[in-house]
Amino acid sequence: MRKLALYSILLVIGLVFSQLLPVMAGGAYSPVTTTVKVLTMIGLSFIMIHVGYEFYIDKRNLKQYGWDYIVAMTAAAFPWIFVTLYFVYVMLPPEMWSSWDAWKETLLAGRFAAPTSAGVLFSMMAAAGLGATWLYRKARILAIFDDLDTVLLMIPLKMLMVGLVWQLGFAIAVMGILLAAAWFWMEKIRIPITWPWVLSYAVIIAVSSEILYDFSKIVDDSIPIHIEVLLPAFVLGVVIAHPRKSDGSEDHGTLERSGEKRASTIISGIFMVLVGLNMPPVFASEAITEITRNIASGVLAQQEMMGWSSIIWHVLVVTAISNMGKMFPALCYRREAHWRERIAVAIGMWPRGEVGAGVLVVSLSYGIGGAVVTVAMLSLALNLLLTGFFIFIVKRLLSGIPKAVLPSM
To answer: b or e along 181-206 (b: 16 or more beta carbons within 10 Å of the residue's beta carbon)?
Structure first.
């Protein structure tokens, strides 16, 4: 549990400095945040390459994965629906309930509640010593499908905001090609898998994504192309062939060497700090607040800001209902796992981080602001702060399972 506690502390450090960054960076705030974002994507790519490397699909039993995707889809959809309805019917005045513009903006802003933070979840579970459990294997599948569903659903949401444009079609085509590559070339590409190489692959993926984004802004600044690194990195891990021993059998010890584990721990720790640093400034200075007010032009931004006591209450409620929306997996897999494991899987889906923060950044780019975005940011921050506690609950749930009913590994 020491590593889990360390990762939690690093997350908090990142969150604290994210609020101090506008003052510390001053005029260099924009390039500093861009650098932090790229470094975060490099760390996420590194983690997701390893996740993809350990991921395996039995093509003879596709029905099981179809059900996994449905379960993951509910885990992504229910929090989104619950939070969006709360934003509209509780936080907005009745005269806006029938406003299509308000619905569009809350549908996009509420999407922050949907994605499980795959990088944070996998790092925390591994730190808690859960890497060899049924829980970890199932959470790995569900979290990846969860984030994939979030990325896919962002496309129609962007269409609502900007219309049907060729950039979104390009993004869909790229994702289709990546998924096809993962299916046909699973474990067939023989390239090195030691940490310096994986870090190099991660840098290439993250930098390529940013170059494509910046280049597309030159073509059309209003609708840039942004391919999230999560899917390319995961697919690369899936297609990498596992090393073989001299007798032809798989060498499972490549990533178990002390140097590999040490490097993975250090990079995951840095990633935790960077995830915290990606949190937009909530307790900003008056200058930053004025800039945000000028950028935000949507209908939600025009609403009068509520007091902090009301905001804190909304943050607690939104955090609770978004996490409750993740509980559907606890009702599934009755033939595979003990009820404690099923609850543990659902709670394991609670952590949110880089993908949810990315959704909020997208929301801000479309001029969405006001109390809704403030509550969304603070809820995301609270959820991040509680990540270590969530994983602690998961570990305690698993410790109470009788050995006789544990599923075979």
So the answer is: bbeeebeeeeeebebeebbebbbebb
Query: Per the domain annotation, does 404 fall within a domain?
Result: no
Angle at 385 between CA 157 and CA 31, to 5 degrees: 60
Which residues constitute the domain of residue 69? 2-242+257-395
Closest CA to 85 of 97, 71, 101: 97
Distance between CA atoms of 347 and 326, rounded to whole angstroms? 7
**Ramachandran assignment for 163, one of left (phi > 0), alpha (psi -120 to 50 degrees), beta (any other):** left
Q: What is the pLDDT of residues 92-126, one digit of tens each?
A: 889 888 888 888 888 888 888 887 877 778 778 88
Helix 166-184, helix 134-162: angle, nearest 10: 160
Per-residue pLDDT of 214-245, as tens digits, reads 888 777 766 666 677 878 888 999 999 987 65
Question: Residue 284 sits in a domain of what CATH number?
Answer: 1.20.1530.20
User: What is the full DSSP assignment across 307-319?
Assistant: PHHHHHHHHHHHH
Burial of 76 (0-12, 13-18, 19+ CB in 10 A): buried
